[in-house]
Specification:
Blueprint (H helix, E strand, L loop, with lengths): L1 H24 L3 E2 L23 H38 L5 H7 L11 E6 L2 E6 L11 E3 L11 H8 L3 H4 L2 E3 L20 E3 L22 E3 L11 H8 L5 E2 L2 E2 L2 H10 L6 H8 L1
Parallel strand pairs: 1-4, 4-5, 5-6, 6-7, 7-8
Antiparallel strand pairs: 2-3, 8-9
Protein name: Leucine-rich repeat-containing protein 51
Subcellular location: Cytoplasm
Keywords: Cytoplasm, Leucine-rich repeat, Repeat
């Protein structure tokens, strides 16, 4: 009976650790070391690794083909109109092919250019091609070693680069940035299991309270932030986020969970919590 109890007791912990490790070893969409300051800059960068969403890319290819087909039809119509005008001009006195060739000067545009040359109403037009935004299918996102000052807009940006991010993303690395706050946009990632926030500039321990609303969060890192200087900060984090299994790459024991409930009495933020409850 005792052996059976022990095996059942740790069965849940083993499954959580195994799933967390599986997420960490998954190939992440890597935007690290890009020297980005604002989250919006992610759209301007190319990730190092990532699995392209074939459904999304094929849909965009189909749309682009339809656009190109429509433009080609317009070009053919404009060329036909231009030929008709040229034939009329040739029939008039004082006009010949040499004069027409000299009058029509076509701008030279490199093949690799982001601009596209075509005719519109018989007039040469140069338009800038729209940058194609490819979506990826990934469970992990690495944004470490940048200079992010805020996470505001991360939810909107990930929707543009990742297929169904709020359902798929379960691992986000935001370590080694300049974050002072935890923006509430992170709460939209309801399936988030692992979050790395170590080596940032979070100085208010109450910022951690927001993460309690992530029901599936099991692993969290906060070391290397100014909050480390706060007395009993580890106990505070364990108490405020009871669903955690690991903190700063160290497993949370049953004794620590019990101890955190006792330490809240001497916690300097206890009074702040009472004020917010009224």
């Amino acid at each position: 009976m005792i052996e059976g109890y022990k095996s059942n007791k740790y069965e849940n912990v083993k499954s959580v650790v195994a799933s967390s490790w599986g997420v960490q070893t998954a190939v992440p969409l890597d935007y690290s070391f890009k020297e980005m300051i604002e989250v919006s800059e992610i759209l301007e960068e190319e990730p190092r690794l990532g699995k392209i969403d074939q459904t999304e890319s094929s849909r965009k290819k189909k749309i682009n083909k339809e656009k190109d087909k429509a433009k080609n039809e317009e070009d053919i119509e404009s060329e036909n109109e231009e030929k008709g005008e040229n034939e009329n001009k040739e029939s008039q006195p004082g006009w010949n092919k040499k004069n027409i060739n000299k009058a029509l000067i076509i701008p030279m545009v490199p093949i690799s250019s982001t601009y596209k040359y075509h005719h519109k109403d018989g007039i040469p037009v140069i338009e800038e091609n729209e940058k194609q935004c490819v979506k990826y299918v990934n469970r992990a996102l690495r944004l470490s070693n940048n200079n992010f000052l805020s996470l505001e807009g991360l939810d909107v940006i990930t929707e543009k680069i990742i297929s169904d991010p709020f359902k798929n993303l379960s691992w986000i690395d935001l370590s080694f940035n300049s974050l002072e706050q935890i923006h509430e946009c992170i709460l939209r990632f309801e399936n988030l299991k692992t979050l790395f926030l170590h080596a940032n500039k979070i100085s208010k321990i109450t910022e951690i309270d927001k993460l309690a609303k992530l029901p599936n969060l099991k692993s969290l890192t906060l070391h290397g932030n100014p909050i480390e200087e706060d007395r009993n900060y580890r106990f505070y984090v364990i108490l405020m986020i009871p669903q955690l299994v690991s903190l700063n790459f160290s497993g949370i024991s049953k004794q620590e969970k019990i101890g955190s409930k006792g330490c809240i009495v001497s916690n300097p933020h206890r009074n702040d919590k009472k004020k917010r409850s009224y």
